[in-house]
Design goal:
heterodimer; A: mainly alpha; two-stranded antiparallel sheet; 10 helices; B: Rossmann fold; 2 domains; 4-stranded antiparallel β-sheet; 13 strands; binds adenosine-5'-triphosphate; binds magnesium ion
Chain lengths: 244, 283
């Protein structure tokens, strides 16, 4: 238990020391998305009877919490290849699961911070949506799934350069295709089906439904829950692979 | 006296390269044991295996007679590690580095605070406790690295080249620190390629060369094996050294040689002579 606390507290302290810089950088890309796609395309644009901006905000939250969750891999790589702190963890009497859980929750914490930044910008822009428990559950599950994948990839890669490949080929496409900026439903079936397999599509759906005050989409919720378990297990199994 | 560390036939292969070819040794509790060897001899590999960072290809190891590979958590609780490459959290403060380490080793808040304060004062870093590590000098970082490993009061401390790349006066200061740690009852395994470091600090020294232990004894015995006095003779092929059981015989020989026109110096046999003798190479 203390092992988990140590790993998580370390991530919190790193966030704490960088907080002003971090909040500032979290606000850059959501602001750009809102300006470019929201205001730039015109206020009159609607998606399913709602202003496009209201459609866009939950999508940006989903994309951003995914990226920040997955972004824990960068911290782990720095700790492993540059600071070599990973060895300090390996030489400590802690279990793999406390290490993995500490890092995943580090990613989840970043995701929540970035979400709060977006919600603040949204409030300033005068956009009103529902931000209740289901909305935050969606953010949590989404961040948890991608932080697990972030930990897994950080354990499996052999160098920092490999990491860019994973990010460019998997994460970046998903940001654009996972129901974030346009509705997946509008696509022809051949494109819709593969996109429905992406975890981010379900996260966007869940987060957007909650923001609209609609009933909880149980299928997406269950899929994300299952992926969170699966992701955790995968991350757990990958830790031993990082040892030579 | 209990045996703190027992190593039996440790082998480590990296692909085709055999980094350790079956080394064995024992360290009684409270001893300061040095592994002395040139670059690539296998010193770090030995320490990484004993601290659970690397798995051995073959062989067994015990801390206080308990197998460390079948009880890794037990072994990690007993061991403290000062790695060769400094691995501190540069963005965190001195205090935070100690705090995280204490939590990793299951200490409660109260003992972390007491122990961290004691160690910071002991190492002269108390005034720096709230500074980020990246603002510390190399010598201060090394001291922090050592006291961090002492946070959880390890019974066996592994020091991998603790003074490499430091000023002579900082090195002496660290030697004092290490001696003090030993005085408190900690068993220490230290690696170095500084001969004088092993000679000054170690109760016993193992010469490690290309993954093999070629000699193991007290510094005194390793040296007297060769004699007491040495005569260096300058030759066109380099320095040639001859050994003598006592100073008188060395002087007689030196006299003879200098009358023949050679440049000679008489000195005490040192550990470097012993190392060269056993390995046939320079450190
Ligand atoms: N991860 C690794 N992969 C492949 N080979 C390795 C690895 N680590 C060490 N080696 C090799 O094993 C041998 C022993 O290395 P080791 O680091 O134990 O030496 P050392 O005695 O600590 O040397 P130094 O004084 O330079 O620190 C070297 O030949 C080294 O190249
Ligand atoms: Mg080494």
């Amino acid at each position: 238990m203390r092992g988990f606390l140590a790993v998580y507290l370390r991530e919190l302290l790193i966030i704490w020391h960088r907080l002003p810089r971090m909040l500032l950088s979290f606000s850059v890309s959501p602001t750009l998305y809102l300006v470019a796609f929201g205001f730039g395309l015109g206020k009159n644009l609607t998606v399913g009877e709602r202003p496009y901006l209201e459609f866009l905000v939950p999508g940006v939250v989903a994309a951003s919490s995914m990226m920040q969750g997955f972004g824990i891999n960068v911290e782990i790589n720095v700790a492993r290849f540059y600071l070599r702190i990973f060895e300090e963890f390996q030489a400590a009497p802690i279990s793999n699961w406390s290490y993995v859980l500490g890092e995943i929750l580090g990613g989840v914490t970043r995701a929540f911070l970035s979400t709060f930044v977006i919600l603040a910008i949204t409030a300033l822009a005068g956009i009103h949506l529902h931000f209740g428990p289901v909305f935050f559950l969606g953010v949590f599950l989404n961040a948890f799934v991608f932080a697990s994948l972030g930990v897994t990839s950080a354990m499996l890669i052999r160098s920092h350069a490999d990491q860019a490949l994973v990010t460019n080929f998997i994460i970046t496409p998903m940001v654009f295709l996972g129901g974030t900026f346009f509705p997946v439903e509008g696509l022809p079936a051949w494109a819709r089906v593969p996109l429905k397999l992406l975890p981010l599509t379900h996260a966007s759906h869940l987060i957007r439904s909650a923001a609209y005050g609609k009933p909880v989409p149980m299928v997406s919720l269950l899929i994300l829950g299952a992926l969170a378990f699966g992701g955790f297990f995968l991350a757990y199994r990958s830790v031993d692979r990082a040892r030579d | 006296m209990a045996v703190a560390v027992r190593v039996e036939g440790l082998v480590k292969d990296y692909g085709k390269l055999r980094a350790l070819s079956g080394i064995s040794f024992e360290i009684p509790e409270g001893e300061l044991f040095a592994l002395l060897g040139p670059n690539g001899a296998g010193k770090t590999t030995t320490i990484r295996i004993l601290t659970g960072l690397t798995r051995p290809t073959a062989g067994r190891a015990f801390f206080f007679e308990r197998d460390i590979f079948s009880s890794p958590l037990y072994a990690k609780r007993l061991a403290g590690l000062v790695p060769q490459a400094t691995n501190l959290d540069l963005e965190l403060t001195v205090w935070e580095n100690l705090l995280i380490h204490g939590l990793l080793f299951g200490m409660d808040r109260r003992s972390i605070q007491m122990r961290a304060r004691e160690l910071l004062e002991f190492s002269g870093l108390w005034d720096r406790r709230n500074h980020k590590v990246k603002t510390l000098s190399g010598g201060m970082r090394r001291r922090l690295l050592i006291i961090r490993a002492l946070m959880h009061e390890p019974r066996i401390l592994f020091l991998d080249e603790p003074t490499v790349g430091l000023d002579p006066h900082i090195r002496r200061r660290l030697w004092g620190l290490i001696k003090q740690i030993q005085t408190r009852g900690t068993t220490i395994l230290l690696t170095t390629h500084y001969i004088e470091e092993a000679e000054f600090l170690a109760d016993r020294v193992a010469f490690l060369d290309r993954g093999r232990i070629v000699a193991l004894d007290t510094p005194q015995n390793l040296m007297t094996h060769l004699g007491e006095a040495a005569v260096d003779v300058v030759t066109p092929e380099g320095l040639k050294t001859k050994f003598f059981p006592n100073r008188e015989e060395a002087e007689r020989e030196a006299m003879k040689l200098s009358r023949a026109g050679e440049t000679v110096t008489i000195r005490r046999v040192n550990l470097e002579d012993a190392f060269l003798h056993f390995t046939g190479r320079k450190v």
